[in-house]
Fold this protein.
Amino acid sequence: MVERIRRAQELLDEYRVSALLLMSSPNVFYLSGLKASLAYLVITKEKAYLLTDGRYYERAKPLAHELLEVHLILENPLQTLKKFLRSLAVPSVGIEGDHITLAVRNSLRSRYFKLIPLVSPLKKLRLRKDERERELIKKAIALTDRIFKELLEGPILGETELSLRGKVVNKAFSLGSTGESFPAIVAFRENSAIPHWESSNAKISGKGALLFDFGVVYQGYVSDFTRTVYLGKAEEEFKRAYQLVKEAYFKALDMVRVGRDAREIDLAVRNYFREKGVLSHFTHSTGHGVGIEVHEPPRLYYNLKEEIKIEEGMVFTIEPGLYFPGKFGIRLENIVFVEDGRGVVYSEVPLELLEL
């Protein structure tokens, strides 16, 4: 955390601000280690200050170190924060312009300092994961693999989408996770054709595609995983589509190289699907960064204006899919680590079609 704060302090000159105020939980956690619904982190060139209320203060105190002071908020949080910023005598304060609400910004306005909105101020720092972060994500992946394998060992027919989701959550907690990285998706038959389907009371019976998309939280870092299986013997139409998705996945993985524009990974998938005549059935981007949050930069999408070069230490998903409304959907997803200049996958769950 000391090194991260030092790197954040270096951003002050780049942003031309005297201090940086962070209020979003992921950014506060990244620099302090505290996960809280109310915590403010103020970075100056000399020090970092973590302000939180009585609900989190005892958890925050042990996080203090040579560069981080912890302060207890006893009165109105925003008024306390405003007074604290004034006490630092800083002329300008960079704020998270893409996170802070207009009401909060108005509450913090002062004639003693100027608020400077910044977009994703820690993006440059969080884009590349350090060794500790990568290890935690790998442990989250190992938990996800185990959950999926155990899920397939138990009964599936006669369950509902929601009861299977419940099993995912229960297994996550029993294996050492602290929760879901997002609400798990279990989608049967035509429901699997809706990429972000909300698991329902639909009963799992008979033949059909069954899609699982879930992730867990491990010590503050998350996983994201998708597999599509088939209950019964798969029809040729499904098998052909599954093969296309699997081949698109490997084409994307082969494109992961340090120095390459991340948009090219998405383009490789789209060009392949276009060649096969199914591009209209691919309705989302090829992937997204993963870390403290399940959706972080970089986004793997061809139509982004900003070029993002792939760098050593990046971690993101590759998740091509094809969706045929009223029939079925297929998505295959792994987290990819950029190591030694290329993409490396640590999930041990194969991508071969499973017919259960």
About this structure: Residues 169 and 180 are 7 Å apart (CA to CA).
